[in-house]
């Protein structure tokens, strides 16, 4: 390339090194997941045997994780979007305090939240044993991401002018909300939804204490396989996890990025 | 992020029209409107209170209900095992924060200020592990430095001795740095993008050397980003559980101590008190940073 200063190449080298630190283990685990024997290496042959093994042992954890993630998305949409709208409509001290409270489940370690749920509701046996118990934890943890994502977009548009315009034309409350507010915060809802799905599928800190032997999610199964099975199966399971999470992350990088500049512009 | 509104309290005032005249907009401020808005906040408020605030209050009460009574809350300072676990967790988290900030600042600044082919791919790869859960991070560390890991293979080929450090504090340190790099790089890049290039120009025209520009202009301007990213880093390392759980249950960090107290010893009161204290520490760290540096969203893994 044209004369770049030597500092450029040094920094590039460093950045590549950091990148290698992050990506090499991912590649290693993908390799281990599809080789016949990790000791022998890739030369020993490529196989889908371990993936099949994972499917046999852990298919139900995958479905449960997907079910919880979708249910969690539904809950955060129903609870979070209206809440974000209210916070955007009535900004001020109280709104800030409410937002601060809502973010607490993210600031407080999942272990503490899970213990709190157990001491409060562990006695309700049927609830404790069902997947809904895990869902509650996930909703608490992901709700702030939905609220903040939507709120950021709502604060970046002239909500009052839009609503006032609609109201002066005779639109009622629900017409304004569904016809004006929701379409205008699409990008925030999309970014928030992707975030919720990604976080819910990968949540472990809360889930480990909330799960029962019959309600194992994917990350719980992962921990299980890392601890007790051979490295190839753990790796193959991790590959399955990557396959589920990568589309979310790619979409998030694309749409999460388009949401951000709009919020920045809104700053006075 | 402009999230909480500007705190002007404009919500209660009638709308101001373009010409600066005040038009009464009863439709948007009336009593009916207020009731409807309250109704929209209610579901979230109910769920949040029932499943977070009430359980947390219960946790607080249980923490004081054990054999030791309310002094359980001091056990993190008085019980030598708990104290040493707290100290090592804090030291670990501080080290993770410092190292991650250094690495991510170097890489993030470089990526933000240079354009070259493959740059966006590099950014995508560096932020890729953003949403890995702690267990997967733990497994990545095992892949690197575990019994069958890369570091072991390389060191055996070079020196004949297999280097294995995944299942220790060092492994945990590596895992938390791994976990934190993506989000700190994102924060640094977002903040560096907003720097005014004229300031650096001015410093250079006054004769400052590159390192002086860096030390006196660029890094001080990034301080808010350092504070918020550092606090997130610290809080996550304090409270994370999955990585330690995957690597070894013997690593004495506070979340593992809490877990052991709860499951093996069935010492629920102590576990409750400790986790309440831990939650308080991480929450205060994040709240302080937000006050100093503006708001930001944290994600524990």
Short descriptors:
heterodimer; A: 268 residues; mainly alpha; MetI-like fold; disordered C terminus; B: 301 residues; 2 domains; 14 helices; 70% helix; 0% strand; globular
Please provide a written account of the structure.
- The complex is a heterodimer of chains A (268) and B (301).
- With 268 residues, chain A is mostly helical.
- Helix content of chain A is 82%, strand content 0%.
- Chain B has 301 residues and is an all-alpha fold.
- Chain B has 2 domains: 35-64; 74-293, MetI-like fold, CATH 1.10.3720.
- Chain B is built from 14 helices and no strands.
- In chain B, α2 crosses α14 (268-293) and α8 packs antiparallel against α11 (223-239).
- The longest helix of chain B has 34 residues, at 80-113.
- The chains are: A mainly alpha (268), B mainly alpha (301).
- Chains A and B meet through α1, α2, α3, α4 and α6 of A and α2, α4, α5, α6 and α8 of B.
Helices and strands in order:
The complex is a heterodimer of chains A (268) and B (301).
Chain A: H1 6-34, H2 49-89, H3 93-107, H4 110-121, H5 125-129, H6 131-156, H7 159-168, H8 173-184, H9 186-202, H10 205-210, H11 218-228, H12 231-266
Chain B: H1 26-29, H2 31-63, H3 75-78, H4 80-113, H5 119-127, H6 134-145, H7 150-159, H8 169-193, H9 197-205, H10 210-221, H11 223-239, H12 242-247, H13 254-263, H14 268-293
Helix pairs in contact in B: 2-14, 4-8, 4-11, 6-8, 8-11, 9-10, 11-14, 13-14
């Amino acid at each position: 390339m044209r004369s770049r200063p030597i500092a450029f190449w040094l920094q590039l080298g460093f950045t590549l090194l950091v990148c290698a630190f992050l990506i090499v283990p991912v590649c290693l685990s993908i390799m281990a997941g599809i080789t016949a024997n990790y000791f022998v290496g890739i030369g020993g042959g490529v196989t889908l045997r371990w993936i099949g093994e994972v499917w046999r042992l852990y298919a139900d954890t995958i479905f449960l994780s997907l079910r919880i993630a979708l249910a969690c998305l539904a809950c955060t949409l129903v609870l979070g979007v209206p809440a974000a709208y209210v916070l955007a409509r009535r900004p001020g001290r109280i709104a800030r305090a409410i937002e601060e409270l809502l973010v607490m489940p993210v600031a407080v370690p999942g272990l503490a939240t899970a213990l709190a749920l157990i001491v409060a509701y562990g006695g309700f046996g049927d609830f404790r044993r069902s997947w809904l118990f895990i869902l509650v934890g996930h909703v608490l943890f992901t709700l702030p991401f939905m609220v903040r994502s939507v709120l950021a977009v709502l604060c970046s548009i002239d909500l009052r002018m839009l609503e006032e315009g609609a109201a002066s034309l005779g639109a009622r409350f629900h017409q304004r909300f569904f016809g004006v507010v929701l379409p205008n915060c699409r990008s925030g809802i999309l970014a928030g939804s992707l975030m919720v799905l990604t976080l819910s599928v990968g949540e472990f800190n809360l889930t480990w204490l909330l799960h029962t032997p019959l309600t194992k999610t994917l990350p719980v199964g992962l921990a299980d396989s890392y601890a007790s099975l051979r490295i190839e199966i753990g790796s193959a399971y991790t590959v399955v996890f990557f396959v589920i999470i990568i589309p979310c992350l790619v979409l998030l990088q694309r749409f999460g990025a388009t949401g951000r500049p709009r919020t920045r512009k809104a700053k006075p | 992020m402009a999230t909480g509104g500007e705190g002007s309290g404009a919500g209660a005032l009638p709308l101001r029209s373009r010409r600066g005249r005040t038009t009464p907009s009863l439709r948007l401020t009336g009593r009916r409107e207020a009731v409807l808005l309250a109704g929209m906040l209610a579901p979230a408020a109910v769920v949040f209170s029932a499943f977070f605030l009430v359980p947390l209050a219960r946790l607080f009460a249980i923490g004081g209900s054990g054999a030791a009574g309310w002094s359980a809350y001091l056990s993190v300072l008085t019980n030598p095992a708990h104290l040493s676990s707290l100290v090592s967790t804090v030291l670990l988290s501080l080290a993770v924060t410092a190292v991650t900030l250094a690495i991510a600042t170097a890489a993030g600044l470089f990526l933000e200020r240079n354009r070259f082919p493959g740059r966006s791919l590099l950014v995508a790869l560096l932020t890729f592990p953003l949403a890995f859960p702690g267990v997967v991070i733990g497994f990545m560390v095992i892949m690197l430095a575990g019994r069958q890991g890369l570091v072991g293979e390389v060191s055996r080929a070079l020196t004949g001795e297999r280097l294995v450090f995944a299942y220790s504090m060092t492994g945990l340190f590596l895992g938390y740095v791994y976990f934190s790099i993506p989000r700190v790089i994102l924060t640094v890049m977002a903040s560096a993008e907003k720097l005014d290039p004229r300031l650096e120009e001015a410093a250079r025209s006054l004769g400052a050397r590159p390192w002086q520009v860096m030390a006196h202009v660029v890094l001080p301007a990034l301080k808010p980003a350092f504070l918020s990213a550092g606090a997130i880093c610290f809080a996550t390392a304090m409270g994370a559980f999955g990585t330690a759980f995957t690597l070894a249950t013997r690593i004495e960090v506070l979340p593992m101590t809490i877990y052991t107290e709860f499951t093996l010893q069935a010492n629920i009161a102590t576990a409750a008190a400790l986790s309440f204290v831990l939650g308080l520490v991480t929450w205060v760290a994040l709240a302080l940073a937000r006050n100093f540096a503006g708001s930001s969203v944290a994600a524990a893994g």
